[in-house]
Structure prediction request, 175 residues.
Amino acid sequence: MIFLESERLLFRTHELQDESDFISMHTDSEVRRYVGGRPWPLEKARTRFRDEYLGRPKETYGLWATILKEESKYIGCCGLRAGDKKGEAHLGYYLAHPYWRRGFASEASQAFIGVAFTRLRLVRLLADVEKGNDASEHILQKFGFQFINFEEIPASGRIINLYELTKSEWYKKST
Ligand SMILES: CC(C)(COP(=O)(O)OP(=O)(O)OC[C@H]1O[C@@H](n2cnc3c(N)ncnc32)[C@H](O)[C@@H]1OP(=O)(O)O)[C@@H](O)C(=O)NCCC(=O)NCCS
Prediction:
């Protein structure tokens, strides 16, 4: 199922043909550097794909297979995770290393922010980013997300920064 399209990207349900690209992405230490810190072992990546991604998302929330239209190629997964409170969701994006720095995460973010505030009529978007993930923080700030607080993961000492974008801030910025 195709959920959404932007200029260069298409967001659809994960299919079996995405498995090898999904595995390559999550077994890459650069990709996992600020999301857990370690690459997933091959078996973990395969199991996660089959148990948690294949055939999903089915509707609205979840990370959608992100396809580069001109190459018909799986380049990552992006989307919204339902929040704990009504009217809120979390924005998330993961792209394969060869496709970084071409504006794809920004394009995906813009598309899902639009979905959140127009199609879904949410009032607040959240995003958490590990300290040091400068590209991700840059994207959030570019779209008007504000830093609200941070949390330290006791076991690892890693710092997770929490950002928010309210519908009113987004509306002000986009008009
Ligand atoms: C974070 C990530 C999604 C960025 O994807 P991307 O497609 O390269 O991002 P974009 O090209 O849309 O934009 C990156 C922006 O950050 C800037 N940037 C890139 N690397 C940067 C860095 N190290 N420091 C500061 N800014 C940086 C770029 O110049 C660009 O800025 P601009 O829009 O003003 O030109 C990608 O690196 C990724 O998937 N990383 C692994 C998973 C991950 O960390 N996900 C995010 C979890 S919070």
